[in-house]
Amino acid sequence: MFSRILVVAIVIFLIVTFLGKHLPDWLTFSLITVLSGSYAFYEYKRRIKKFIDLKIASIAGFRTKFQFYTVSYSQYRYVDIYNIVNNYISQFKDITVIETTNNGYLLSYLMDIDWFGDKDKHITKGTSMHFKISHEEEIFVPKQRIWVVKKGEKEYFVLHLMFYEHTYLEIACLEEEFADEFIALVNKESVKNSIYKNKLLSLHYDSEIQGNESGTMNYRGANIAFLPPKVMTEDSIVLEEEIATIIKRNIFDFFAHKDKLAAQNVPLHRGFLFYGSPGTGKTYTCHYISHTLKDATCIVASGDSLTHIKSVCNLARMLQPALVILEDVDLVFASREINAYGGTLGELMDQLDGFKADDNIVFILTTNSLDRIESAIKNRPGRINQIIHFDVPTKNLRFKHFQNYLLPYDISDLDVSALAQKVDGVSQAFIKDLVFRAVQIALEENNYQDVEKVCLQMHHFDVALREIIKYNNQAAYSILKYKDDIL
Length: 487
Hints:
This protein has 17 helices and 16 strands. It has helices at residues 2-20, 25-50, 52-60, 78-89, 107-110, 176-192, 241-256, 258-263, 282-292, 309-319, 342-353, 375-378, 395-405, 416-422, 428-445, 458-470, 474-480; strands at 67-73, 95-99, 128-132, 138-142, 144-150, 156-163, 167-173, 200-206, 210-211, 217-218, 221-226, 270-275, 297-301, 322-326, 361-367, 386-389. The strands form four sheets. Strands 11-8-13-14-15-12-16 form a seven-stranded mixed sheet, with helices on both faces. Strands 1-7-6-5-2 form a five-stranded antiparallel sheet, with helices on both faces. The longest helix is centred in the N-terminal third of the chain and has 26 residues, at 25-50. The radius of gyration is 33 Å and the shape is elongated. The termini are far apart. The model is unreliable at 208-219 (pLDDT under 50).
């Protein structure tokens, strides 16, 4: 920039020097003024198009004394905020959009006028990122955008939205009251119309920002992925009748009739603890509940996510009514004597104690080992309202499990009742694996030829059972839970 000014100054000097010998002083002075003014005007117009600070000042006024207000949100809320801002400014007619790169600078700096030009304030073609808004849909949104909006006859306000270490929303305006009203509106509407509302979500945590093959964005802090919906009906779920009744009354009906319950002073939050050996249907039941529940947000957290329980609960509060499923909690919330996550354990108890009566949130905790769970969690009604044991299925339930898993196959030559009796003492997961092994054995028997329906017979299951049991040691036996005389 300075080199360009120097060149122009030299050119003007040479022109004036040459013509000054032949022109009166007043005319020479006028010529200098005109040339200098013309270049200054050209440089001003050029910089207005190039620099954010001058562009905004040329629209809203160089002498306007703006007040600046900044709000930060979690990164995953960027699309929610972006949608509400776009919707809000659509009511105004005079809007100027300024694109720029994601440089991390706040609006107060970007609008601070620098006549010499600051490279960090360049108006450039903005960059976009893809953002999942459901399991199957994604949109592209700018990482940074500035809107200059005409509010009144001569009054403007400026909005700045930026995806950086957080989601930053800024407003520059003349009145604090206007800023407060705008921010309150954004906070309310962005939650009400959130892309995460009433969806099935999986929650993880990471310290990096990256994309993955499925298109899910990972952010510093919470990584939220949309889980695929599944159609599950009462006919497709196999549960003990008492457990099914408890779940219907205390989860499905609890959410469906929350207003009537609240009117009778019934607190709208509850906690359940599902426990039992591996493969007995805890996760299976959680899938059924989460995929069947209507008009509620379902949040699934496991592994490292359990060490961020405060963030999980804050997300549930924001998106309520909500169902929160915490899987394998004994890994983090074990009894104090053996717990390496003492602070996290205390945080969970604080969160479960901290819900208001009208917070419509249901927690389901799952564990393979009830004995490992901290007693202050499992033995406190205000934190856990009911503990449900998932045992190995009875013969009647085994029969129903076989019926479900055998639906795609030809079982006209199979005595399903006898098969259910034969595998007494096994888990649901064992039954599922047994069916799939029998299917492969049947296909192998026919050289893997294409058939419309695989025909399954008892000897296919006998072969599968011998294969499973013959090479299992005592440790595997303790997991599979089959009986000695199963063959």
